[in-house]
Here is the input.
Amino acid sequence: MLDSALHRQIEAISAGEVSATELTQGYLQRSQRDNPQLNAFLSIDPEGALVAARASDLRRTKGEALHPLDGIPYALKDNIDVAGHVTTAGMATRRERVAEADAAVASRLRRTGAVLLGKLHMHEAALGADGDNPHYGRCHNPHRQGYTPGGSSGGSAAAVAANLCSFALGTDSMGSVRIPASYCGVVGLKPSYGRVSQRGLVRVSRRLDHVGPLARSATDLPLLFQTISGVDHQDPNSRSVPLAHAEVHGRRLRVGHLADLHTYGVDDSVRTLFDAAVAQVGDAIGATEPVQIADYDFARTRRAGLLLCEAEMLVEHAADWAQRRDLFSPRLAAMLEFAEGRSASDLIAADRALDGAVLLLRKILGEYDVLLTPTTPQPAFAFDTPVPSNQADLTSIANFAGTPAISVPMGITADGMPVGLQAIGAIGSDLLLMALAERFEKLRAENT
Amino acid sequence: MLDSALHRQIEAISAGEVSATELTQGYLQRSQRDNPQLNAFLSIDPEGALVAARASDLRRTKGEALHPLDGIPYALKDNIDVAGHVTTAGMATRRERVAEADAAVASRLRRTGAVLLGKLHMHEAALGADGDNPHYGRCHNPHRQGYTPGGSSGGSAAAVAANLCSFALGTDSMGSVRIPASYCGVVGLKPSYGRVSQRGLVRVSRRLDHVGPLARSATDLPLLFQTISGVDHQDPNSRSVPLAHAEVHGRRLRVGHLADLHTYGVDDSVRTLFDAAVAQVGDAIGATEPVQIADYDFARTRRAGLLLCEAEMLVEHAADWAQRRDLFSPRLAAMLEFAEGRSASDLIAADRALDGAVLLLRKILGEYDVLLTPTTPQPAFAFDTPVPSNQADLTSIANFAGTPAISVPMGITADGMPVGLQAIGAIGSDLLLMALAERFEKLRAENT
Here is the structure.
């Protein structure tokens, strides 16, 4: 039952086949065994989790379950505040920084009665994707020790893939939910901008930050998405985002797929799987047409997106940066120092540069309901090999544009590592993307 | 007919009581007479206007009118591009800067068959509100020569108030439509953020810029608003903003009015009119309750808003600033130099500071459908007297928060100058605000 998808666990717990306490104990024992090697959890709270699980079981006994998720064990990326818990954000400066209040998404999950197991590994300050944290060690890919789980939500993807929890939340500013989902072989969603509150996150960038769920099956994402989303009047960036119709069956979807993959430095191993995935989608869901991306400078836009993050982190971490600069890794310090040398108008120019992604995706998504791309140009790589500079190019477009995007596993490379298929849709098409991912997941299951 | 409200002119033109050519000639003759003293128009295009008017009359004769506005003479603030016309933005650097394409709003108006008379006076670069342009001279208030019309859309309000056109468009980044509407005794709307395209404006700030209509009667705003608004896929800031129900009759509106006006430096003359307006609204439309504004630092937020504008103008005018700095007024140059000395993280901090207005208005507009305030703390002032520093405090909140806001005349001070009543509503309540303004306008007409 620990390895099952969330919806199976919900069925089992509500049928009385398993208790919240059993599930929680199971995951705690497995983490005790596996986490020392994997390092997906930065902190585990066995006492708190077991108290919550027993309270959930008592509610179930009385027929007073709060929500389908009542009693389901989950974990949060460690840049999401939970009252009374430390939020490290993967930073040495924050080892003892206890949150006073729940983040909006943590509060929403708390109200369901779900059981928080602990907080998950992440790239230092969420700005990077190699899973190698200089303060908290490496989080390993469950598919191969010594390989990155991706990031920055590497612990979230690794914990879900290694069956150390039922589901997890991550955050995604340039691809930080989808990249580790791709590398670890799980599903991950970056919702439409503003649909999920940013309140209570250790912020990377107001324009780019999104909280998103990770799970073992695409079937589980809509429930998680609906649970964490909704207008939050205390978050100035929260907004009403009407959701479009989500029917995949019964209508021909207009699907485009990224052409000329070599242009984006996509590995042959990934291209092979992507071609097969596109063919499967084309057969089953709708004809897919090749889409070229023109007039979009990936390197320049990436640099602009990074400046937004770096400059905002100078504000977010201002006190620590002033007082304990020695506790910042040389890599992060160099990024912040770069931003210190940039002017207000440099930032305006960077913000404007990101508009290229907005216009690009509006054009493509005016012609197609969905754009398919590989989530990552390559599978997970070994630690101590150079980090590919194009790692977030295919994911970050959706952050720049505020559109939803999903990563769903599309197969295993000849070398044995998973990679994800990304689907990007117009703002408000979150449910459609999840329905498409679920359909694709079922197609793959039928064909294997 | 030249002095009539737009809806009366539309009735007359469609009934054949007046032709587009007659209206256009009338306004051109009146401008020839009055504009040298008023200086509301920076440029007038008699030939183009008459050609357009004759074409409109021909369409009307054939029963092929394009739109209710077909043949109606109007004018645009001179920071809105019209293909083939110079867009000065009130700047000396741009005296010969011919636009290649229509701004989105200009294009929408062109398609209605309305007749463009010319381009209107504005504060240099739209960053200021005293109507005193060092390069293009002073625009005077039609109610008193030697007094400011307000700004930055001073020419727009003055031309509408002096009956030199049927309606005008302005732009509003801190209050630049509503302040001159208040000072000149006309109505002006700042729509919900993103509802009207920013494409083709000389930009002040992507977060704060809004195009809005000015007219002599609140009855005329909905048509103008609907004509210029709608999603523009070529404007990265354009977005779908669903509009709320607009019924004012038949339901009790929850109306709040700003209390403790002395706190905001509101003149006694304005307070007297505001108290009377609030009482009228209370009697006729709904009980109104006093609203206090707490935890909001006007001076700090104003400074933050200005930095957003100044930094973006460094990018918007980068080439001119590099090559012809001598053509910038000392006042504008000082503002841009201030921004040059600010860092990327200063700008992030300023952007965050504006969120105080978002949260403040969400809280108030969670309790009330509408918040009433004076539009301006004072009536128009004489040139060569100090510009009040609080001039935009009551209007800029709505820019910072992205909410719609309207200014409708609420009376004439004992000294003989008009001032406006401002109504602010939640995002998407544009139609409600216009309906409320129309109702208030009718109440005042009945009572005088």
